[in-house]
Design brief:
Elements (H helix, E strand, L loop, with lengths): L10 E6 L7 E8 L5 E5 L17 E8 L14 E5 L5 E8 L9 E2 L4 E3 L1 H4 L11 E6 L5 E3 L3 E3 L2 E4 L2 H5 L3 E4 L4 E5 L2 E8 L7 H19 L7 E8 L4 E4 L3 E7 L6 H16 L26 H4 L1 H13 L5 H16 L9 H6 L12 H4 L3 H19 L6 H12 L9 H10 L4 H8 L15 E6 L23 E2 L2 E4 L2 E5 L4 H5 L6 E5 L2 E2 L2 H10 L5 E8 L2 E8 L1 E2 L4 E6 L5 H11 L7
Parallel strand pairs: 1-9, 15-16, 16-18
Antiparallel strand pairs: 1-2, 2-6, 3-5, 4-6, 7-8, 8-13, 9-12, 10-13, 11-12, 14-15, 17-18, 19-28, 20-27, 21-22, 23-24, 23-25, 25-26
Helix pairs in contact: 3-4, 4-6, 6-10, 7-10, 10-12, 11-12
Amino acid sequence: MKMATAAKSPVRYRVGMGRPHSHLFEVEAHFPAGGEVVEAVLPVWTPGSYLVREYARHLQDVTCSDDRGTPLPVERPDKRTFRVRTGGRPCTFRYRVYAHELTVRTSHLDGTHGYFNGATLFLYQEALRDQPHHVQVDAPAGWNVHVALRREDTSWVAKDYDTLVDSPFEVSPARAHAFTAAGVPHELVTWGDGGQVDAGALCGQLAQVVETQAKLMGGLPHARYLFIVHFTDKGRGGLEHEASTVLLYPRTGLSTQKGREDFLGLASHEYFHLWNVKRIKPKALVPFDYSKESFTTLLWHFEGGTSYFDNLLVRRAGLMPAGAYLSRLGESLTALHGTPGRKVQTVSEASLVAWIKHYRPDENSGNSAISYYLKGEVVCWLLDLHIRKATKDARSLDDVMRLLWSRCGDGRGVPEDGVEAACEQVAGCSLKTFFDASLRTTAELDYSVLSHVGLEARFRPRESASDRGGTPPRAKDKEPKPRGWLGVSLRGSTLASVAADSPAMEAGLYAEDEVVALDGFRVDGAALLSRCEEKAPGETVKVTLFRREALLEVPVALGARPADAAWLARVESPTAQQKAAFKAWCGADWDEA
């Protein structure tokens, strides 16, 4: 007769927010009886955001007592560890966490809501990570608790610490909007929208995106899902979780069609992470090490590939016209070719050093690095078309995702060569030349495979500082007048960055220079760029600026603006095969583009 296994004692937390204007969460962490010495630690990073953020810097007033109420001295041997000698008895830590940073990776508490990401709040014991973790929330009167965890009596229950960290809480007066997609219940809860958002319409659109992704992947991997959306005056971003996501989006962003498409692309991105990175994950991240960085060269696929699928699946859901989708791809190409760092850093290296590069940008980042999101998206797009071409459209990157899901979806992790191997298995041929050139060199990407779907990439000079590409030239002249180019980006009237090998760099303009005049006449940042564009390449302008309080005048010989604005043109006489391949790829008829 098989003996019953004793239930594991849970770790229990209580989270209070009795003084929300202080931005301080009040936390109790109760650990069951264990060893003579207990070391409670806090993560230094949160999964999905590859930067050591030192969350322990926000903990204060840390105390501890045993189950009889006897105070226990707390030692702090390093930045994230709190050590007590319990004599084997249960113990309870009490502390406060300052939370006044409104991002998807941190926590935020004020008089309107409390949002907390578990990595910022919950001390844990490494030895107890696999035991259940329960959370009781003491919310202000009239506030509701929203989280993807199941409720048991008065607590929210996570099967282990990893699940708890992957389950953000939103606590506010807001009520959730429920909808069902692919047979699974979903909820949407918003904060900061000021009543401007049509939640019903938004739920309907999100449901279409979910249905499209479920069709691609053969169903959904969860029993319930929660969208948490923070609408703000500025900022845009998202963070994926095991059964939820947190999205940050401009409050007025949904007022235009393009803004709504952009929001759905963001939501689609985080939702697709349910498979790509949450369950199909790099082996280097198995298991999560919350104490330090974990390095992988595969973020070009796990983040860049997700960036490729996000708008593609919005397009396939019928929520983005084909022309708008092609325009967005052109904008991505423009951003890529407008980044000098693509000639310096490979996308494989960009993945590896995300911890010190991507999340720590400075004025030279554009010259020295490339985003694995951006170049990864373009590489995965080209990869998809190569697979389609090699298999006469019988297979695609969709099949690669399904193969990885069947092979590694149990969380075992994808080895560093696993994505390439899966792609070659699906394509039925070697893709080594493509991968070597695209991932491991800084050579310009080869866009000739776009012809498989009847497209070609074309380039032109940007027509203004705000030109993001994606569209053909607006000028009626076949050969528009060349515009003068300085080669800087601005923050107000201050130079934010100076492009490598640009006229500005050659002349000696520096980031942080404050521009006050051009050719003796006062200008702000926008006027500086527009007046330079009115001049011809080769003309010399005199830029007057302050540098560390010193007034300087710097002559600059303007250059010709590079042709780095891209757009996708349809071939003039497409074959029936190209039209069919186009539809199989993006789900739209050729004539819709």
